[in-house]
Amino acid sequence: MNTQLTASSSFTDLKNRIETRKARVGIIGLGYVGLPLALLYSEQKFPVTGFDIDQRKVDTLAQGGTYIFRITPEEIAAAKAHGFKATSDYAHLTEMDAIIICVPTPLNEYHEPDLSYITNTAHAVAPYLRSGQIVILESTTYPGTTEEVLVPILEEENKAGLKASYKGAASDHEFWVAFSPEREDPGNTEVARHNIPKVIGGLDRQASEIAAALYGSIFRRTVPVSSPAAAEMTKLLENIYRCVNIALVNELKMLCLRMDLNIWEIIDAAATKPFGFHPFYPGPGLGGHCIPVDPFYLSWKAKEFDFRTKFIELAGEVNVAMPYHVIAATIGALNRQKKPINGAKVLVLGVAYKKDIDDLRESPALTIIELLQKEGATVSYNDPYFPFVGRGRKYDLQMKCAPLDNLAQYDCVLIVTDHSDYDYKKIVSESQLVVDTRNATRAIQSEKIVRC
Ligand SMILES: NC(=O)c1ccc[n+]([C@@H]2O[C@H](COP(=O)([O-])OP(=O)(O)OC[C@H]3O[C@@H](n4cnc5c(N)ncnc54)[C@H](O)[C@@H]3O)[C@@H](O)[C@H]2O)c1
């Protein structure tokens, strides 16, 4: 290892290294967030090393392969040509100038924050820390995690007795710490990732400045806030805002169905208001790693302050009920054709949690498939992004993607995810009955369609 690197770099040194693209960037967790981030730094000619405990991911990248649909082998090859490497060996962390942590933050079985990925990462990083490095957490989490969870482990378990810099003038025995939330919107092709402003909360002024320089080299705009906790809370506010508004339109959709009104028509009309209204759309239930999960990080933390986050809980209640509403609507639609759900052949169209992405996490389709099976239906699925659905954290389906031919064999085709590649006109014309949870068939008039 380069002995120069073990010496502490001053604040100005590190900023210079960032400005001249010499700063070595280590990204921990090469998933949906970490791998694209590594590629962005690599595109900007930074020497990047990715760290992951999943050896299959490390091996795939070493062979020039990819495991995320929207990232091509050509992008991996270009990054490798710029020196990008992936490893599971944490010892290389000492060589890094910046360490960015992008590990999962799920809920446990009691719907409480599971910080084990963050704490495991902190335990693994600490022995390799050196002074003059910056450690940045990107994983979505409750306010206080960076200071109350990450920093104490790093401080207690590093070998040189290093401390996090709090005073804005780091000494030779300090490292910098910041939190900067990932705000990516998978599948969104309208806003390029580098155009999404990056919120940054450093533990002190120097940490904020270094993080701003680092992110400023790949993002157009950085938004400094006063502390890591303020940055943590910013991310949660954004996701809670989405979660609550989706619950609102989901509830109003159910009312509209009873009143024989079309909620989508109404949302589109309301969205013509040039101020004060932002459209959210109803669906079969929340999915993805963020919206169904993150709000509960805050409601858990709020209890420490004798506070109940009633909006979050109410929104959770409405959104969790949506797959059950879809099942009731499917049973009703079959019933009107004098068919019981028990024994019916149902094709679930789309299992990804939202359109045009290859991510199954927390997808409502999985719950819907399980509920249909419990009712005695024979369920198949089709999704161009998933040739097979095996075992996940909460399900074990072991199903193969069914072809889209011979749709007439199904008693019902249930649209759960409105992928753009589907030819909805053809699907409706070939099916006996279509239950549409996404308004994917908005342009089609047919008695076969039941919107729910
Ligand atoms: N996916 C998104 O669109 C998105 C958007 C915004 C925020 N986030 C947040 O970003 C964080 C990461 O999410 P993601 O979607 O990339 O998760 P992911 O599951 O796709 O990737 C996480 C990666 O971390 C690796 N990992 C776990 N523990 C590790 C350890 N100790 N050391 C090294 N690697 C480890 C896993 O093997 C995996 O490759 C989460 O907090 C999530 O809430 C995700």
Note the total helix count: 14
The stretches of 5 or more residues where confidence is low (pLDDT under 50) are 1-8
| Residues in helices, as a percent range | 25-40%
Order of helices and strands: HHEHEHHEEHEHEEEHEHHHHEHEEEEHEE
List the ligand species. nicotinamide-adenine-dinucleotide
Q: Give the number of DSSP strands.
A: 16
Q: For the report, how would you describe the main beta sheet?
A: 9 strands, mixed
Indicate the radius of gyration in whole angstroms: 24 Å
Question: Gap between N and C termini, in Å?
Answer: 61 Å
What's the average pLDDT? Answer: 94
Per the principal axes of the C-alpha atoms, what is the gross shape? elongated
Structural class: alpha/beta
Report on this structure.
With 452 residues, the chain is an alpha/beta fold. The chain is 37% helix and 14% strand. The protein contains 14 helices and 16 strands. The strands form 3 sheets. Strands 1, 2, 3, 4, 5, 6, 7, 8 and 9 form a 9-stranded mixed sheet that branches. A 5-stranded parallel sheet has the order 11-10-14-15-16, with helices on one face. It has a two-stranded antiparallel ribbon with strand order 12-13. Helix 2 packs parallel to helix 8. Residues 1-8 have low confidence and may be disordered.
Features:
single chain, five-stranded parallel sheet, 16 strands, 14 helices, binds nicotinamide-adenine-dinucleotide, alpha/beta, 452 residues
